[in-house]
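Lab meeting minutes (informal)
Scribe: AK
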Amino acid sequence: MSISNPEYSQSNILRPIEIKGNNHNKGSLPALTLAAIGVVFGDIGTSPLYALKECFSPEHGIPFSPDAVMGVLSMVFWAFMVVVSLKYVLFVMRANNHGEGGILALMALALRTAPANSKRALTIMMLGVFGACMFYGDAVITPAISVLSAVEGLEIVSPQFTKYVIPITLTILVALFLIQKKGTALVGFLFGPIVVMWFLAIGLIGAYMILDNPSILLATNPMYAINFLLEHSLQAFVVLGAVFLVVTGTEALYADMGHFGIKPIQFAWFFLTMPSLLLNYFGQGALLLANPEAISNPFFLMVPESYTLALVILATMATVIASQAVISGAYSMTSQAILLGFIPRMKILYTSEKEVGQIYMPAINW
């Protein structure tokens, strides 16, 4: 494998990334947790806006039924348990390279077990680069898709707002990238309280709906998911792809680890993010069991019409923040790629005196 960068070598890969991201100030756990909520969990935190609705898209050919609702929710629940909680938060995040996370950090760790210039080493490198490309693709499309999906909620309030959707979206995105140079800490400090409010709101809305139909909680039984997959066979495989929209942004948890450390991310996930998301998804399921027509937009239809505009505004702010997770992750990923010799050097600005992993890269931002 030829690399154009003359600084590349197998030893460069095997050497730990020279960023001591583990040296987080232990006394700053609450502040780091709040900032992590504002930066890391925005992407996965806004998936309730579209994920469940997409699972029952007519294109998938799955007939709507109570059993289908229970089956899909069961898959959602176990996706959170297995993919996010077990795989990433408890297992993969332990595989950090001097505090740095992401697919390239994982690749560097894996290469330490492979002989230099071997086929195994080449395979690991190719998988790492491919994974990084996939993450960059996510970082490119997520800001546009997430912000646009929330601003389109204005159309539910009134069709007259339709012509303003694109201009508002563009204005929000430009402003988001303009403030990146202020640093992850400031962005997280500004966004953290809003995301906390978002999670509390969607959790309470979901809990209220669950109270009307607590039987929806039976979907935690994995047999509902298994029976759904067996019954619908090929179509269920397509739906499973839509189910994984609920874990969109999970890679950002790992990639952004260098900005905040492991403990703040784990604490925020288990005590706020995951409970709120699950309550909301099960609340949407309870609504669908009572009113199947709500599948057109179950998230916004969970609240009375008089509260829809307020929820749209909050959702818009949350989806703006969702973009921050992949933007920060792209900085970390690029920094690691530079240190590993895969891409030329770029300007890296360190935006925090306490957290070495908090960086800003103008070239990537623009």
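Next up, CB showed the second protein from the same session:
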Amino acid sequence: MSKHDGEAEVEAGVGGAGDAVELTRVRQLWHLLEPLHAVLYYAPEVFEEAAALGYDTKERWPSYFPLRAAPLGPVGTERVASAFYSFSPRMVAEHIDSAWATAEPGAVLAARLRGVDRAYRAIFGDGVDSPQLAEAAALARCAAESVDTAGRPLAAANAELLWPEAPHLQLWQAATILREHRGDGHIAALLVAGLDPVESLVSFAAIGAASVERFESRGWSAGEWRSARERLTARGLVDEQGAATDAGRDLRHRVEHQTDQLAARPWQLLGAAEVTRLADLLGDFWVAVLSSGLLPSETTLGIGKV
């Protein structure tokens, strides 16, 4: 079977007859849920909660690392750098070495729920208590509770947390579990492709997923970026100007396709009708988050560009 034949089979859906979930739908759910999770890293209400714990909030990184890593417990730089993958270990160390001396992980977990609660109330208004949100939360939670966590440290850590009672916080926690489940799978796809942390960024920038300047926020030096580009050039994946070759674009396509495949199981278990219903329900909340102006227009995730 050729690559294209195999992809056609997967794109047509995997599952029982009449109940298949297409990979295009899997990716759509990521696009819809990612902004709902990402409020954690940009909302002023979350920054206020982090500042109350003692974190510097003049920029987002000092709070980003403990807020995202807290489910793992009081872990050090090596484990956080491994789980986050594309950040320079120096950047991780800068923020994690002192993170748990500022506040222990349990306090950070409580603060992030308080912050998201306040942020969602500000963004969604009366929609926080709507039956539409409650239904979306129930469906998303059902998917999140079915994730396979073997070999997925961030998904597993978030899946172990107790569920909050409020539906809007259940929606956020489900979005978080599902996005970390997808992210863990994405790292597996990068490893299979032979792309180390900095190479993963250089190759992604090479296909235009985001600007090089945006990827520089991950803390790699100019020399490290240049060396990674040279390694990819030697493999025939980028040209001398740093643009992707046909082979480089094909490799990144395979990485993203495999990421979708590895993220599909919770949605297949939920079922095509329920997935379609969830996508419909999430639309207004997705628009509300994007319309809030909290999230940057360009991110390193390449949403809408891959």
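CB comment: The longest helix spans residues 167-192.
No objections, moving on.
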